[in-house]
Amino acid sequence: METINLKNKNPNILVIGDLMIDHYLWGSCDRISPEAPVPVLKVTKETNVLGGAGNVVNNLNALGANIGALSVIGDDKIANELKSMLESIETKNFLVVQKNRETSKKSRLIASNQQIIRYDKETTFDIDKKSEAKLLEILEKQIKNYDLVLLSDYGKGVLTNSLTKNIISLVNSQNKKVLVDPKGSDYSKYKNSYLLTPNKKEASLATNIDITDEKSLYIAISKLKNDYKLDISLITLSEEGIAIFDEELRVKPTVAREVYDVTGAGDTVLASIAFAISCGLDINTAVSFANLASGVVVGKLGSATATLDEIIEYEASLNQNSSSSQIKTKDEMINLSKKLKQKNKKIVFTNGCFDILHVGHIKYLEVAKSFGDVLILGLNTDSSVKRLKGESRPINPQEDRAYTLAALKSVDYVVQFDEDTPYELIKALNPDVLVKGGDYKGKEVVGQDLVKELRLVDFVEGKSTTSTIQRIKSND
Asked: Per the database record, which ranges form the Carbohydrate kinase PfkB domain (predicted)?
């Protein structure tokens, strides 16, 4: 797909839904309160970003769309703050103020990138009929100025049953498309939309079908299309990609290399598909584009967006040899290990100099990988090798050794360490299994006190870097 073709495209897209502010208090917890058994957060930073339907707006803005935002807010300070945030990214505001309604603001307390608690200030009951009528009146006047309409439903009362049906009817009468990120288990109010973007869990609830394989996926996705008269039926499948059904079922696989945070990924899918369709792309290409955008976003922490330049760069990197992407810094590997643990992956760790790669190394690493799901290889840096092996070593520099090892099928990640032993690295990564050579039988292995399991693997007889070097010297 030529994502470059979307450069300098500026479609006009109207977002209707529940606007809110995501408020973050960042800091650290070093002590327990003397007043109650709770941690004390020392706040070092405070941030506010658009949330809910506002995150869809943010994603569209990053892509370069001209955006309108249509919603209902309260008559309060939060509403004024929200309007200022929309104006700062040049979004046209079509906001109806309803008295006795509180604008949504979600506050999160974060200590060392870990959320401690969230508290919400908001009104979640349905907007009144007067507000509904005002929204429809604005839509009737403005629809001619927009290529496409997005409904971002967060269940906070803006997209009521009757209003949603009237919006879809009005937009369809203008021969324009409505794309919806749905909420709840009853999708009847979204009937006659162009497409919906539920995730697998949401689709299962809406159809009462447990999606576990291709057959159940087909039944669920076709049921959504038929029951709600959709042009196209979609189900997002997290790391598996996005399923599409019109006349037939197909799954566009994900292109995310690493997943650090899936916060807001659904908003990115909705925004990027809408952007691509507004630029004239067909649904297959639009979904591929959305997969690329999501691949960028989930590689970042927190609710994030993807620019066209980032998407283009990301796509180009996927077409290159990926071995270098498997070489990580210690900090990168620590973050990635935490994510792997959360996904219940069994992590295996081994280490060594691996100076001149030979068949003994390869067979050893293949066996090591068999003990778990992910194999992390700790590689001694050049200075570390010199201290251990002498000034004449290593033969191959650390960059070459790391790249060669990362290219092996059995090795998932390579991380270099400069110490004489990998103890601190093992402690930081917290692997499940530690693997060492069979020559450590009966000996104390560095780091074995840090892991659940130690496995020893016998070396291939007569295969070693030292013997290889000796053979080379004997032939000189």
From this structure: 12-306
For 204-228, what is each residue's pLDDT tens digit?
A: 999 999 999 999 999 999 999 999 9
Tokens encoding 140: 């009737």
Instruction: Clarify whether residues 355 and 465 are in a common domain.
Output: yes
Flag whether 176 is marked binding: no
Annotated binding residue 310: no
Cα gap 274→132, rounded to integer Å: 24
How far is C-alpha 345 from the chain's CA centre?
Answer: 17
Residue 415 and residue 377 in contact, taking contact as beta carbons nearer than 8 Å: yes
pLDDT digits (tens, 9 = 90+) for 157-178: 999 999 999 999 999 999 999 9
| Strands 233-236 and 195-196, bridge-based pairing | unpaired
202 known member of a binding site: yes
DSSP per-residue codes, 385-449: HHHHH-TT--SS-HHHHHHHHHTSTT--EEEEE-SSSSHHHHHHH--SEEEEEGGGTTS--TTGG
Say whether both 76 and 189 belong to one domain.
yes
| pTM score | 0.67
Catalytically annotated residue among 22, 147, 267, 412: 267
Q: Are 203 and 342 found together in one domain?
A: no
Domain boundary among 318, 350, 375: 318
Report whether 455 contacts 434 (CB < 8 A): yes
Let me know whether 239 and 148 are in one domain. Answer: yes
My answer on whether 178 and 58 are in the same domain is yes
DSSP 345: P
Q: Cα(254)–Cα(298) distance, rounded to whole angstroms?
A: 11
DSSP assignment letter at 199: B
Distance CA 475, CA 122 (A): 79
Token pair of 67 as six digits: 């955006």
CATH number of the domain encompassing residue 178: 3.40.1190.20
Structure tokens at 127: 């907007």
Distance CA 394, CA 402 (A): 13
How many structural domains does the chain have?
2
Query: Domain range holding 202?
Result: 3-318
The answer on 330 and 314 residing in a single domain is: no
Residue 181 and residue 202 in contact, taking contact as beta carbons nearer than 8 Å: no
Active site residue 267: yes
**Are residues 357 and 386 in contact, defined by beta-carbon separation less than 8 angstroms?**
no
* Lookup result for tokens 């937009």: 171
Token pair in block for residue 72: 């209902």
User: Edge to edge, what strands does the sheet with 92-97 contain?
Assistant: 92-97, 66-73, 12-17, 148-152, 177-181, 195-196
61 is in an annotated binding site: no
In tens, the pLDDT along 303-334 reads: 578 888 888 777 766 655 456 778 899 998 99
Alpha-carbon distances, residue 269 vs 15, 235, 248, 313 (angstroms): 14, 11, 21, 18
